[in-house]
UniProtKB/TrEMBL annotation:
One Gene Ontology MF term: transcription cis-regulatory region binding
Residue ranges of coiled coil: none
UniProt keywords, alphabetically: DNA-binding, Transcription, Transcription regulation
Residue ranges occupied by any HTH cro/C1-type domain in the UniProt entry: 10-53
A Pfam family it matches: LacI
Domain HTH lacI-type: 9-63
Key word Transmembrane present: no
Protein name: Transcriptional regulator
Organism phylogeny: Bacteria, Bacillati, Actinomycetota, Actinomycetes, Micrococcales
Alphabetical list of SUPFAM superfamilies matching this protein: lambda repressor-like DNA-binding domains, Periplasmic binding protein-like I
Length: 351
């Protein structure tokens, strides 16, 4: 299938090899949401095989765009959960390159600083759009970009006080944290645990509230079905994120008159601290984290894996669609995570 004459591949040559029109190839590059999945896969396979790359200068002349996307690098925390955004960034950059776009990274300490960087980049750099991460209640960044009609997509939904997540004001992609922690809790209940605790961030974080909801929903369903789950108010522990904080939660749980035998955590950092503390006390506490970081795999920690390559792909599709046609934001995408079971939550002696 690959060309053999040494010539630079063109839209026409790719179209001929894939058996489609030039317009279809153009749609694959610029508006993939308009192309059927089977055709999209076939054309992309040809693009990869012949090494096609859009001619950036020509595209800029036609579209008057720079094909540059801005993204803020989140501050470094404990070096564990930051790996999640590292994997998303890699997938986003790779996908952007395949479409002829470049990703420009910048740093900021908070939302105010990030907005200041938006303003600076828009004033001094040819930049077309932004990708945002870490959405939260009252997010000023999305309001600022929307007011100025600047294209953007968020990895994270627009959290609202009434619980609505289908805000049509902008395009977003997110992972269903509620489904993730529900799966983790159900896994532990099926293993025979009846006292399953939760360690998560203080109420009000949006993402953390969703993950807590999944745990609570699973316990309520188990109680309604078979009556094994009693009141769980003493098992819900709110704490800042971190390894030390996870260990402190276990210290508190073990002081209960009827301590839990299992724990679901809102992050791998909390889970790692909890796992270390339980082992230090000689307690066979089953633990499940969230994000399936490399550390989780290394220490045998069960965790919830986010489909980060799919998140990046869905983010780019929505962003490119905006840039190509100036159309209304695409339908939000809520993707499903998966439970990765390792030895930290496999059946063991229960009290």
């Amino acid at each position: 299938m690959a060309r053999t004459d040494g010539a630079r591949p063109t839209l026409a040559s790719v179209a001929a090899l894939a058996g489609v029109s030039r317009q279809t190839v153009s749609n694959v590059l610029n508006e993939p949401a308009r192309v059927q999945a089977q055709t999209l896969a076939r054309v992309r396979a040809v693009l990869d095989e012949v090494g096609y790359r859009p001619h950036l200068a020509a595209r800029q002349l036609r579209t008057r765009r720079s094909n540059v996307i801005g993204l803020r690098l989140e501050p470094v925390t404990d070096g564990i959960n930051g790996a999640v955004l590292d994997r998303f960034l890699h997938a986003l950059t790779e996908g952007a390159q395949d479409r002829g776009y470049r990703v420009v990274l910048f740093t900021a300490d908070d939302d105010t600083g990030e907005i200041a960087r938006y303003r600076e980049l828009l004033d001094t750099t040819d930049i077309d759009a932004f990708v945002l991460t870490g959405t939260h209640h009252g997010d000023a960044r999305t309001a600022w970009l929307t007011e100025r009609d600047i294209p953007f997509v968020t990895f994270g939904r627009p959290w609202t006080t009434d619980g609505a997540h289908d805000d049509p004001s902008h395009a977003w992609v997110d992972v269903d944290g509620c489904a993730g922690t529900r799966a983790a809790t159900e896994h532990l209940l099926e293993a025979g645990h009846r006292r399953v605790a939760f360690a998560g961030w203080p109420v009000g974080s949006g993402t953390g509230d969703e993950r807590r909801l999944g745990w609570r929903t699973a316990l309520e369903a188990a109680s309604a079905d078979a009556g094994p789950a009693a009141d769980c108010s003493d098992l819900d522990h709110q704490t800042p994120d971190g390894v030390a904080e996870g260990a402190q939660v276990v210290e508190q749980l073990l002081r209960l008159d009827d301590p839990p035998t299992a724990l679901v955590c809102a992050s791998d950092s909390l889970a790692l601290g909890a796992l270390e503390a339980s082992r230090a006390h000689g307690v066979p506490l089953a633990v499940v984290g969230f994000d399936d970081t490399p550390v989780a795999a290394a220490v045998g920690l069960s965790s919830i894996a986010q489909p980060l390559v799919d998140v990046a792909e869905a983010t780019l599709e929505r962003l490119v669609a905006q840039l190509a046609g100036g159309q209304a934001p695409a339908t939000p995408a809520l993707l499903h995570p998966r439970l990765v079971v390792r030895r930290s939550s496999t059946p063991g002696p229960l009290r």
